[in-house]
Amino acid sequence: MALSSPSLAASNFAKQPNAEAPLEVWIDWFWNAFLPSWIKNAHHPKQIGFYDALDEAGNPNEPARRTVLAQARLLYTFSHLALLSDNPAYHEAASSAREAVRAFRKAPGLYCLARTSKGTPTKDPKDLRARSYDQSFVILGLSTWLKLHPEDEPNELEACWQALETHLTDPATGLLLEHDDVEHASSLSAPRRAQNPHMHNYEAALQAFEMTGNPVWLDRAAIMRAKGLVYFFDDASGTIREFVAPNLVQLSGRDGQYREIGHQYEWAWLLSREADFSGSTSIRAIAARLLSFADTHGIAPSGAMKGAAFDAVSSNLDWHEETFLLWPQTEAIKAHAIRARKSGHAQSAIDLASLVFRNFFAGQKVFANQIDANGTVIWNEALSRLLYHVVLSFTEGARAGLWSGPRRDQKNNTGSGGNTECHQQNPAV
After folding, report:
1. 193-209 pLDDT, tens per residue?
2. How far apart are the first and last CA of the chain?
3. What residue ranges of the chain have pLDDT lower than 50?
4. Cα–Cα–Cα angle for 312, 322, 284, nearest 5°?
5. What are the residues whose beta carbons fall under 8 Å from the beta carbon of 18, sequence distance 6 or more?
6. Which domains does the chain have, with CATH numbers?
7. How far is Cα of residue 3 from the mean position of the Cα atoms in its chain?
């Protein structure tokens, strides 16, 4: 389904509230003004899906290219919002992303990295690769979409998982391969083994379980989680490593000590989610260790970015990066939200959401991607795939009762909007 907007480039984004406006005003603006204008301006009616990124002026950076990562994340994002609110605008946006994702399928259940904006192959042969990281978001998005439209290729979700196991899994270890062109996974010339695809496939399987109710998906989630923890959990520090060598040896030096704070929070959120489904206490204990490390060592203690999550710290605490990407803030908000009933965490989520609007949205045409320790924007590209992070953090906060969520009667406008009532539903997260 093509969106009705005739926009060719982003040029008319929603008027913002005052930077120091109360959080609820910003939240209302996000649901009722920002998202409707983003949907209009990030879409070309004669091209597939949505632009991958918008620049500081709100114009597309690479209008002629699309990635399956961005389209699959947006499929999840808008399907998730449609389930929460039944808002027709989200149904329509999800439908546009669904049609785009189809263009990337190179075999049943297997999706390539990139296509042109018309859905045809690009000139780069690497764009034909299927990546396990991308495949996780196809599963995440498709399982959520099928909850809305179970009649739409119902066998494709299972085909995605089978393709993952057939083309993107190392038979020697069960770990995921970077892409389907990897021939010798343990060779030192092969890509390093990364925790990120495992974490997101864990997430995708948990989502598929919640959407379908089929216990096989919970079993798959548990297997993926176990593999991830065996190879990437550092018991000494209570943290998740980012990479290990192709032969599974721990990396030395800075690479071996590198810990992304957003991933500590994200793994903890997922472990807590699985524990809610299964009742496991052992994985809650691991989540608690990850949260303790991130809370203690990963948050700026003072200055313009007080309360924000650092991009990365070392596992031995010798250094930290005093830069702040947008997505780790959203993962910290999610982690605070699931602990909102515990002392201080509700306020931490509220304060951090306020900081996100004040520092990453206020004064920007769309939103910024990275801030320095002084609160100055150092990367102002608005990556479309980040909406997945931002929206989920705000719906988690709404589920915890910290602010309002999306509504069916959301107006398709570009004004700042007024306050909305708190609209609570059980989110599909």
Report:
1. 999 999 999 999 999 99
2. 25
3. 1-2, 5-10, 412-429
4. 35
5. none
6. 24-180+189-399 (1.50.10.10)
7. 23
